[in-house]
Amino acid sequence: MGQSNTIRILDGNTFVVSEDTGDIEATPSEPTGLFSIDTRFLSRWVLTVNGERLNALSYDDLQYYEARFFLVPGMATHYVDAKLSIIRERTVGASFREQVTILNHDERPVDLEIRMDAGSDFADLFQVKDEILNKKGEIYAEVEPDRLRLGYRRGSFIRETVISSSESARYDRNGFSYSVHLEPNEQWETRIDVQTHAIGPGGRDLRIGLRVHGTERLALQHDLEEWIAKAPKVNSEHEDLAATYRRSLVDLAALRFSPLSLGGQTLPAAGLPWFMTMFGRDSILTCLQVLPFAPEMSKTTLRILASLQGTRFDDFRDEDPGRILHEMRYGETAAFEEQPHSPYYGSVDATPLFVILLDEYEKWSGDVALVRELEQECRAALKWIDDYADLVGNGYIWYERRNTDTGLENQCWKDSWDSISYRDGTLPPFPRATCEVQGYAYDAKVRAARMAREFWGDPAYADQLEREAAQLKERFNRDWWVEDGEYYALALDPEGRQCGTLSSNIGHLLWSGIVDHDRAEKIAHHLVGPRLFTGWGVRTLAEGEVRYNPIGYHNGTIWPFDNSFIAWGLRRYGFTEEAATIASGILDAARYFDGRLPEAFGGYPREQTKFPVEYPTACSPQAWSTGTPLLLLRTMLGLEPHEGHLAVEPVLPVGMGRIEVLDIPGRWGRVDAFARGRLDLHKLAD
């Protein structure tokens, strides 16, 4: 089943992906079904009337957590003269609920057999992703007088799907049925309730991540209204910007995920369908993007990541003391250690990014208490950078997986197998060190020095960190500079040889501040030059590199989140025009995705395509793509916390028009920001 004809609703890490009829017919390799806590709880959910499948007339994507399908019996024809119509309304929250309404438009009464086939393979999301369904436990179905219980048991690991109906139904092991008599113009309806249960040791129900209880739809609606009301208001003459902003706010609400240990507090899950869980890197970068708009997410994210910080050496999980986790999973394969995500620590950027987020959050919020609360975790993270991440002994952060069976080979944000290469296209040996991570380490030390001096009462430690940061910056600008290209290498191999490919990673170096000022202009020119910039955005890998592919996952596609941090970095070094150019391209692309930027899209030149080319398996919605328009708004308006106040220095793209961002929260209370774009003189001349 292709992405285009699937309907998705979600709430946190619980989501439903179905056909446009509402039916679910999953195969082991398709991410269709009802999923929660990394398990598929429904893999078959097919509605028939008198034995006939239903044909979709239309559907309403009502909210992120609900959808409505309008159907008629039989196959599609050019002329539909149906005597029956069927409406399926579904909501996902603390449970999955579906209301089925059938209307008789005939002049005569009708007798109907209504059937819902139901089943579950209880596939782990990793098994679906890897297209391997190898269940080692027992799948069972128990028919009770008023419900159907589907289950899976493997030792103490139990997952169950319990289905009941408001109208009397006949249950069997494969679903349930109704016999209905309808008079002319009469309608019949039933509400079907699907409860998901994760049973742990001692019979405890571990329904992690299900935030809303009671009357789900009303609670979810109220929660969404409250979420939007708390966020700043954006008004814009640019016809699509305000709509894109609202779409981002709604998707960010949809992706909020509440682990059991947080007692209802939320952090962003990374993306649907594969990454609806806690990530270190993704959650931190999303929090940085949305700080001016949803600052409370940062506090939650920092606390949960701190509570799960590495404490020991564990090769299976690539864990070290002080290391911040990469990914946390709750499914069967993690429970039985068939993969290491319980949690898994195979990321080299989450740890410095943790320190960066804490400092940036304090600058916005003034939450000194959290900075003091997490002092030891910050010190442990900085110790990890120096003592455990420097695998070669030359002062850089390196990575090499110790779990060679199921660990990640590339532990930077470009984590696909072929994302790091020499200029000739060959792949370097391990360990590897990528450029942007050194920038993060530099930034983390500079920011930690501020926290040590101002909040931890340790000026000597602050001085030490500043010395180390300055030395790192000097070394980096010597070792990573590609002389014949005038940019920074993507990576170094363990012998110190450069992977001299030109990549988008150099934009993250501007964001971190590690770039020498006399080289920054060269970097800016590359970022908006024709090899990297397409008109829609900056490619992950420059055109002309051996591994360049405009639809290669990390080798030529455009990642919106990547571009948002590049624009922020350009702004940091004073390249306001270049930052505005990138912001304009990405926001233009958002129009073609109805305001919902995908994980990635094709890196084709803008003059070659009238619209951005979709990447076939991109996650959508995805947290750091959802955060992209918000960081671009911050960048265009020049919003920066400065000595307890909010500085506003707008530089908008040509033709953007007037933008207002009202009620921006922070230590200053709530303030407004206004900006007006410059006129397009070429258009006026025409």
Write up this protein.
The chain is of the alpha+beta class. It folds into 2 domains: 7-205, Distorted Sandwich (Beta-galactosidase, Chain A, domain 5), CATH 2.70.98; 231-676, Glycosyltransferase, CATH 1.50.10.10. Helix content is 30%, strand content 24%. It has an 8-stranded antiparallel beta sheet, with no helix packed on it. Strands 3-6-11-16-15 form a 5-stranded antiparallel beta sheet, with no helix packed on it. A 4-stranded antiparallel beta sheet has the order 1-2-4-5, with no helix packed on it. A hairpin with a 2-residue loop joins strand 13 (147-154) and strand 14. The longest helix is centred in the C-terminal third of the chain and has 21 residues, at 459-479. The radius of gyration is 26 Å and the shape is globular. The chain starts with 5 loop residues before the first strand and ends with a helix.
